[in-house]
Every structure is written in C-alpha cells, then in structure tokens.
Write a structure and sequence with these properties.
With about 300 residues, this protein is mainly α. It has 2 domains: about 5-270, ABC transporter involved in vitamin B12 uptake, BtuC (Orthogonal Bundle); about 270-300, no CATH class. Helices cover about 75% and strands about 0% of the residues. The chain has helices spanning about 5-30, 40-55, 60-85, 90-110, 125-145, 150-160, 160-165, 170-195, 205-220, 225-240, 245-265, 270-280, 285-300, and strands spanning about 120, 200. A two-stranded antiparallel sheet has the order 1-2. Helix 1 packs antiparallel against helix 8 (about 170-195) and helix 1 packs across helix 9 (about 205-220). The radius of gyration is 21 Å and the shape is globular. The chain starts with 6 loop residues before the first helix and ends with a helix.
Length: about 300
C-alpha cells in the first residue's frame, strides 16, 4: 500500500504510528480518570516478550506480537490492583514506579540481553501492518466511546463517587481500563520491536514518557481522535527538527502544552469541537437549516 514511499519514510511512519498507540494507551486510562504513567514499561514488556518468543521459541511474528500485547495486559491487570486503590498524584507516582520497575527488571535479566537488549530481530512489521493495527484500535475505541461502557468511564472521569452512586462498578472498570491500557501499550512495543533490528531497555526511558504524555494531554481525554492528531502532528514536527538540542525539544513540548491548556483546557478535540463537526456534517440538522436559510434567501 505504501510502496511509493522510500524505506526511511516508511520506518518513520511506523515510528509515528507506534507513538499513536502509546498515546491511545494513555487515553484509555484517562477515560476513567486514571493518570497512568506505566505505558512505557508495558511497551517494554510487550516488545521483549514478542522478540524473545519469535527468536528463541520460533513463534511467528503475528503470534508473538499478540502474545506480547496480552503479556503486558496481564501484567497491568495483576499489578494494577495493587496501585488502583490510590488516588490523584499517588496513583500517578505508583503507576510510574510500576513502569520503571518493568524496565529495570528487563535490564537486569540475562536472557533479555541486559542493558544491551536484543539484536537481530526480523523486521516483519511495515507501514501497512502498523496502519491496519492503528485503524482497528481506533475503531474499537470509537465503539467503546458510543457504548454504555464508554459513558460509564466518562462519568467516572468527571466524578467517580457520583458514578458509583448510580450503580457503576468503579473498581472493576478502573481495573479493566488499566489492563486495556497495558494491552495497547504492549501492542505498540511489540510492533516497534518488529520494525527495528534491535531493542534495548534504554529506549523506554523518561524522555519517551514525557513525549507521549505531552501528546496525550494536548489531544485531550474527550475523544481518541485528539490523541491521534496530536501524536502525528508533534511526531512530524519532531522529525522535521532533526537532531536539535534536547532543550529545544523540551521547550517545544512545554510550549505547546501550555498554549493548549490555556486555550483548550479539554484538549484539541473537546465537546465543542465534536458538536461543531457534527453540526456541519452533510445531512446534519445544522446543515439542513443552513441550506434552508440559503434557499429562502434566494427565493426572496
């Protein structure tokens, strides 16, 4: 599908889509009011699990990627119950610690290659595969957004006590949202592993966490499309900047975040934006009213 692009452009495209998945993993947790900082650790778990199963056990790339995503989700489901009883900044710090422990454990294990990581991973994932995976994940998130479960998650984000008062099982929803966040992050890590020749624990550092967190905050928690737009736009800008000083990149992320928080507190895609788009779609009530007004003016 993307054969018209040169190999480097396709590699950059896969990297952008991997970041999109990482941002979506944060978005899923945002939906129920959970600020999770463990996505980078789950991505590392998914990447190393998939690479080891393929290279040492002979599993196919597709099966290895699925196993990596499920392994990260299982890790999130098990350990999430230990930290999800926390609230606010304590929950964020607990999830951050969980993610960092995942990376440190991988770096200390001998069969993962230690700090040097794994070399010689077959590059089985191209831009077409990554694009298909992202489209499927976005479609599932849209179904979730329009479902009763999605409405329950948004109610929890606004006030989990009120949501619990109307019958929402908040602990279960928080646990499964955290696990789903882990699955998507693990999927991102596994896809990233099969798009490069080597992976190492150093790739999943604090800098990556700051980048995807800034993208997620700019995108907002109302709709998944905000995170996708933010990840793609910021990723393209980052590629255009090239090898500029880290200070300049930090100022870029910080400046964009401050501007968006001041002008669009709910992110670049908020309730007002969604309503405006729906009102101007062909066949919508707003469009029909505008056409009727124009016809009336023309008749006069």
């Amino acid at each position: 599908m993307f054969n018209w692009l040169d190999p480097y452009s396709q590699f950059v495209g896969v990297s952008l889509l991997v970041n999109v998945l990482l941002v979506l993993s944060l978005f899923v947790a945002f939906q129920c009011g959970v600020l999770s900082l463990a996505s980078v650790g789950f991505a590392a778990d998914g990447a190393f699990t998939a690479a080891l199963l393929n290279m040492k056990e002979g599993w196919s790339p597709a099966l290895s990627i699925a196993a990596g995503a499920l392994a990260a989700g299982l890790l999130a489901l098990v350990f999430g119950r230990l930290i999800l009883h926390l609230r606010g900044i304590y929950l964020a710090l607990g999830s951050f610690a969980l993610g960092q422990v995942c990376v440190l454990v991988i770096a200390d294990l001998s069969f993962t290659g230690g700090n040097q990581g794994i070399i010689g991973i077959p590059t089985s994932v191209g831009l077409t595969t990554a694009a298909v995976v992202v489209v499927v994940v976005c479609a599932l998130l849209q179904i979730l957004h329009q479902s009763r479960t999605g409405r329950a998650l948004r109610a929890m984000r606004l006030d989990d006590r009120v949501a619990a008062g109307v019958g929402v099982n908040t602990p279960a929803y928080r646990a499964w949202a955290f696990a789903a966040s882990g699955v998507i992050a693990g999927l991102a890590g596994a896809l990233g592993a099969f798009s490069t020749v080597t992976i190492s624990p150093g790739q999943y550092d604090f800098t990556l966490l700051v980048q995807i967190l800034a993208m997620a905050m700019i995108g907002g928690a109302y709709h998944w499309s905000g995170g996708v737009i933010a990840a793609l736009v910021i990723g393209i800008i980052q590629q255009d900047l090239g090898q500029v000083a880290p200070l300049v990149q930090g100022l870029l992320y910080g400046g964009l975040l401050v501007v968006v928080m001041m002008l669009l507190p709910e992110g670049i895609v908020d309730r007002r934006g969604i309503r405006w788009i729906r009102g101007h779609l062909p066949g919508s009530r707003g469009t029909r009213q505008a056409i009727a007004a124009l016809q009336s003016a023309g008749g006069q």
